Amino acid sequence: MIQMEKNIVSFSNNTVTKDLPVQINAEDVNIYYGDNHAVKHVNLPIHEKSITALIGPSGCGKSTFIRTINRMNDLIPAARCEGTISYKDVNILNPKVDVVQLRKEIGMVFQQPNPFPKSISENIQLPLRFAGVRNKKTLKEVTEDCLQQVGLWDEVKDRLDRSATSLSGGQQQRLCIARALALKPDVILLDEPTSALDPVSSAKIEELLLQLKNDYTIVIVTHNMQQAARIADYTAFFYQGELIEFGKTRTLFTNPEKKSTSDYISGRFG
Ligand SMILES: Nc1ncnc2c1ncn2[C@@H]1O[C@H](COP(=O)(O)OP(=O)(O)OP(=O)(O)O)[C@@H](O)[C@H]1O
User: Fold this and answer.
1) Is the ipTM of this complex over 0.90?
2) Are 71 and 59 contacting, i.e. CB atoms less than 8 angstroms apart?
3) What is the whole-number distance in angstroms between the Cα of residue 63 and the centre of ligand 1?
4) Does residue 138 have its Cβ closer than 6 Å to ligand 1?
5) Does the residue 270 lie in any domain?
6) Residue 256 Cβ < 6 Å to ligand 1
7) From atom 5 of ligand 1, which residue's Cα is the shortest distance away?
8) How many helices (H) and strands (E) does the chain have?
């Protein structure tokens, strides 16, 4: 692990010294797909204005867990959740929660950039219109603001009416992040947001996430341990549906408590 710190990974961005308040708290969360117990008794605090990375080998439940935070698993008929995910004094898992409102406050970005097959500006404005915003000046201002926040404005300001699908993969992913920002969320969930991108585009997204954590709480699923080490303040290691270890990223990578964490981050499996 020490070798990893010296040779491969810079922890220079893991700046968190004092824990910020917990914004989302998962307690004894269990998620099933039919008989498959995919996430087992997970307790995980997510601190505000920090980046939390979920790592672990394929099939360990990372995506299942992150999707549950904004109830995307509701779309899978076989999925069933138990436990508590507290956010603003409500349990996200309560069936009475207004999921449309929840997804405004907790946005999500997926592995494959998925812009709407509409113009660049409409990608930002459609969710706003859906939320009832009609004022043209506001729509324009929010469009510019969100595109500025993801560093895309200068690249696209002269072609806002062009199709979003004309953008490169990396630009499309930044547009999807801008679209998530349009509804002024508190939290952004990202499920392997760079795994379909080239290294330069991935680096831009990492830089962007480091900027965005000043204003938003970020949870990211990543297979790339170096990415977790570069950008995450906290890391959670999942294995076979269980949360094996959670802590500050530097500590988890350099001084893990559990042998399986140590084996995974040193490449002995996964
Ligand atoms: N839509 C689904 N329907 C049924 N089972 C699912 C579904 N999605 C995931 N699973 C199962 O849940 C378990 C956890 O899968 P999940 O995709 O959450 O893991 P993961 O850690 O995100 O894996 P990967 O890194 O490969 O994406 C696996 O056994 C998987 O087969």
Assistant:
1) yes
2) no
3) 7
4) no
5) no
6) no
7) 33
8) 11, 10
Would you say residue 99 lies in a domain? yes
Q: What is the pLDDT along the chain (270 residues), one digit of tens a residue?
A: 434 444 445 666 666 667 889 999 999 999 999 999 999 999 999 999 999 999 999 999 999 999 999 999 999 999 999 999 999 989 999 999 999 999 999 999 999 999 999 999 999 999 999 989 999 999 999 999 999 999 999 999 999 999 999 999 999 999 999 999 999 999 999 999 999 889 999 999 999 999 999 999 999 999 999 999 999 999 999 999 999 999 999 999 999 999 999 999 988 776
Nearest-10 Cα torsion for 127, 133, 138, 142 = -20
- Is 128 inside any structural domain? yes
Residue given tokens 């490169």 in the structure block: 168
Q: State whether the beta carbon of 78 lies less than 6 angstroms from ligand 1.
A: yes
Domain containing 259 — which CATH number?
3.40.50.300
- Residue from 30, 37, 62, 64 whose mutation best tests the ligand 1 pocket (most atoms within 8 A of CB): 64
**Which has the closest alpha carbon to 147: 168, 172, 169, 165?**
172
Beta carbons of 31 and 39 less than 8 angstroms apart = yes
- Amino acid in position 176: C
The domain in which residue 62 lies consists of 2-265
| Ligand 1 close to Cβ of residue 64 (< 6 A) | yes
Q: What is the DSSP string of 55-116?
A: E-STTSSHHHHHHHHTTGGGGSTTEEEEEEEEETTEETT-TTS-HHHHHHHEEEE-SS----
Cα 183 to middle of ligand 1, angstroms = 28
> How many distinct structural domains can be found in the chain?
1
